[in-house]
Amino acid sequence: MFKIISSIKEDLANARDHDPAARGDVENAIVYSGLHAIWAHRVAHWLWVREFRGLARVLSQFMRFLTGIEIHPGAKIGRRFFIDHGMGIVIGETTEIGDGVMLYHGVTLGGQVLTQTKRHPTIEDNVTIGAGAKVLGPITVGTGSAIGANAVVTKDVPAHHIAIGIPAKTRPRQPEERIKLVDPDYYI
Ligand SMILES: CC(C)(COP(=O)(O)OP(=O)(O)OC[C@H]1O[C@@H](n2cnc3c(N)ncnc32)[C@H](O)[C@@H]1OP(=O)(O)O)[C@@H](O)C(=O)NCCC(=O)NCCS
């Protein structure tokens, strides 16, 4: 129980850090669909790994109906995960997401094949993925990287790089870009 409460507190603090529009914790807990989606996913994933898979899928689809955010219960997601705006997000079954990752609306972490293999991306720690970006296949987006809005990424992105365009091209991410990229004040 203590672990659940501290995890909820961490998520609320994370929402404040990532969104200048965020106000009190109570209000944020009520209005942020990204928080509802990740909290429900933690329950769905708990059910999934204990073989209550039908129930996990029902919960996940119900949350999709409520939030517009579809997270497969099999996806592994780390701490301080934040979704801004929500809506139109799809996260596939074999996706693995590290700590401190942020997604904007319209992001797909999807597969390119229909086989029961690792077919979705691995997103390492502290990655930001811009609105509408599609990250496809069992590729890795390295720690501290950023994916530009509407990019289509089908190849690995090295750590501390920026990927933009279709198909995405990468370039090193300069240290001074770090604050700019994580501060939504620049975007909204
Ligand atoms: C990709 C991104 C991280 C790059 O930031 P940056 O390094 O500060 O980039 P700059 O603004 O200096 O632009 C550098 C060049 O890349 C281009 N560019 C920037 N973002 C781009 C994108 N998403 N797709 C294609 N080109 C892009 C710029 O037009 C510019 O081109 P130029 O050199 O020909 O003038 C950022 O533009 C982005 O897409 N962030 C996601 C924001 C988001 O999703 N916001 C949603 C808020 S609701």
From TrEMBL:
Keywords: Acyltransferase, Amino-acid biosynthesis, Cysteine biosynthesis, Repeat, Transferase. One of its GO terms (cellular component) is cytoplasm. It comes from the Bacteria. InterPro entries: Hexapep, Hexapep_transf_CS, LbH_SAT, Ser_AcTrfase_N_sf, Ser_O-AcTrfase, Serine_acetyltransferase, Trimer_LpxA-like_sf. Pathway: Amino-acid biosynthesis; L-cysteine biosynthesis; L-cysteine from L-serine: step 1/2. Its EC number is 2.3.1.30. It catalyses: L-serine + acetyl-CoA = O-acetyl-L-serine + CoA. Signal peptide: none annotated. GO terms for biological process: cysteine biosynthetic process from serine. GO terms for molecular function: serine O-acetyltransferase activity. Pfam families: Hexapep (PF00132). NCBIfam families: cysE, EPS_EpsC. PANTHER family: SERINE ACETYLTRANSFERASE (PTHR42811). Belongs to the transferase hexapeptide repeat family. This is Serine acetyltransferase. It comes from Corynebacterium matruchotii ATCC 14266.
